[in-house]
Design brief:
HAD_sf, 6-stranded mixed β-sheet, 8-stranded mixed β-sheet, hydrolase activity, HAD-like_sf, HAD-SF_hydro_IIB, about 260 residues, hydrolase
Length: about 260
C-alpha cells in the first residue's frame, strides 16, 4: 500500500488557469489523490476569504494562506504570524510620501489606505477580485498577516533597502506582498508539518510564482508549472506542463502519485 503523502498546491497559475478556472484534469487529479488516502492542502498568497469557494469545491480544509502567515490544519488554526503594528505604521507613512497605496490583509478581509487608485484597480482586478474597502487605520485595530504595496517594479529596491526586517515579494508589475522577515510559504508548511508529524521528504508542492520559490526548494518534491517564473522552475526538482495543458495531472504522474 502506498504511504500517505502530503501535497500542497498554489492557487493562481497552478490550480487556476489564466481565466481563474480549474482545468477539469486538475480537479479530477486532486480528487484521485484524496481517494488514494493522501493529504491535500493549499499554499497560497491569498487570504482565507479569497478562496472559500475553491476549498469547498475541492473538499480541502488544510491550508497555508497569506504566504505562510496563517496556517490551518483540518479546519483548525495552528499558526499565526502578523506584522508588527509599529512597523506597518512607519511603512505606511513612507509609502504615502511616494504615492504608493498600502493594503492590509487578515483572515477576514482586506482594507486599503486610499479610496481609489489605478494601481489597485489593475493589480487586484487581475485576481478577479473587487476593489477593497477603504479603512486607513485598519492595521491599528486588527492583526495584519500580510500587507501589499502598490508600486512599479523599479520602486521595490527602495523598500528592500529601507526595511531589511521585512520580506517583499513581487506578484504583479504594480504590486508586491509585504511579509515579516521570516515569512514564506515554506515557513508556513514547516509549521503545519510540526503539527501533523510528517517529514518534509514526504511532502510535494506545486507552484509557479516568485512566492513559491522557497516552498519548491524546501519540500521533498518541488514541481513547478510550465507557465511558472524562471526562478520557480530553477528552485523545483521537476517542471511539469502549463496549467492549461493538464499541468497538475502531468506533474502528479511525473512524480508517481498518479
Amino acid at each position: 500500500m502506498t504511504l500517505r503523502k502530503t501535497i500542497f498546491f498554489d492557487i493562481d497559475g497552478t490550480i487556476y488557469d489564466e481565466e481563474k478556472q480549474i482545468p477539469p484534469s486538475a480537479k479530477e487529479a486532486i480528487a484521485e489523490l484524496k481517494r488514494r488516502g493522501h493529504h491535500v492542502a493549499i499554499a497560497t498568497g491569498r487570504a482565507d476569504y479569497m478562496f472559500e469557494e475553491l476549498r469547498a469545491e475541492l473538499g480541502i480544509d488544510s491550508y497555508v494562506s497569506l504566504n505562510g502567515q496563517y496556517v490551518v490544519y483540518e479546519g483548525k488554526p495552528v499558526y499565526s504570524n502578523p506584522i508588527e503594528k509599529s512597523t506597518l505604521e512607519e511603512l505606511t507613512l513612507f509609502a504615502e510620501k511616494l504615492d504608493h497605496p498600502v493594503a492590509y490583509t487578515d483572515t477576514a478581509g482586506m482594507k486599503v489606505n486610499v479610496a481609489d487608485h489605478e494601481y489597485i484597480k489593475t493589480s487586484i482586478g487581475s485576481l478577479k477580485l473587487v476593489f477593497p474597502t477603504h479603512d486607513a487605520e485598519y492595521f491599528l485595530k486588527n492583526d495584519t498577516h500580510q500587507a501589499m504595496i502598490f508600486c512599479p517594479q523599479e520602486s521595490q529596491a527602495i523598500y528592500t533597502e529601507r526595511y531589511p526586517q521585512l520580506n517583499f515579494i513581487r506578484w504583479h508589475p504594480l504590486c508586491m506582498d509585504v511579509l515579516p522577515g521570516n515569512g514564506s510559504k515554506a515557513n508556513g508548511i514547516a509549521e503545519m508539518l510540526k503539527v501533523i508529524g510528517v517529514r518534509k521528504e514526504d511532502v510535494y508542492a506545486f507552484g509557479d510564482g516568485l512566492n513559491d520559490v522557497e516552498m519548491l526548494g524546501f519540500v521533498g518534491y518541488g514541481i513547478a508549472m510550465g507557465n511558472g517564473e524562471a526562478e520557480a522552475k530553477a528552485a523545483a526538482a521537476y517542471v511539469t506542463k502549463h496549467v492549461s495543458e493538464d499541468g497538475i495531472y502531468e506533474g502528479l504522474k511525473m512524480v508517481g502519485l498518479l
